Amino acid sequence: MVTSVTSAPTTTTSTASQSAGVSLAKNFDTFLTLLTTQLKNQDPTSPMDSKEFTNQLVMFSQVEQSINQNKNLEKLISMFSAQQSSNNLNFIGKIVDVDDNEVKLASGGSAFWSYELPAGVSQVKYNIINSAGKVVRTVTQTSDQAGGFPSGRIELAWDGKDGSNNAQPAGTYKLEIVAKDAGGKTVDGTKVFARGYVEALETVDGVQYLVVSGNKFLPEKVVSVFPAPTNDNTGDDEGDDETTS
Is 0.85 surpassed by the pTM of this model? Predict the structure, then answer.
């Protein structure tokens, strides 16, 4: 059901393990050169104690193992990142609901949210708020059904205009919902989600984001995915339209 309020991946490979491996090899070569020189020039009547250089050999071996483990870990991380990027590509061209109530309104465009009401809600007040915290549009809807509004995900479509039918400027807007029961008591538990079309992927400082109708969200914030509609009405896959005046 729809409520209408009207009037590419980059992979970065670390070179830390490679540098550590080169440094260890140089140090080990130096150590062997010094050890060989000491052994050649030791006093036969008072030979060197083998414990010290044996301990150093053990330490070199442990460091080498740690470097190899880091290399393997980097490979696993790289494989995981590549797999994650591949999975994120599947979002492109889909409609998603994101665990966030902020959406971006384009100039002359529309904005969409979805929401879930708890049981027993008979009246819903929608407040659309701009980035300055000002309420630019308020709509109140009352259910004429016994038991209140049905449960399930409902889409809210806003045409970008205030109560006087004036188009609002492009920017970020939030949806606030105040739900009440038949007795006028406020009911808690309403969930609001930003809804939009996944246009692209964008990587910022090594972190990949979904570009959803101009806004950037982490992929893990996606709570629902829907196939893109065949026309401009993003609510066609959600059921019959419900218009709020």
Answer: no
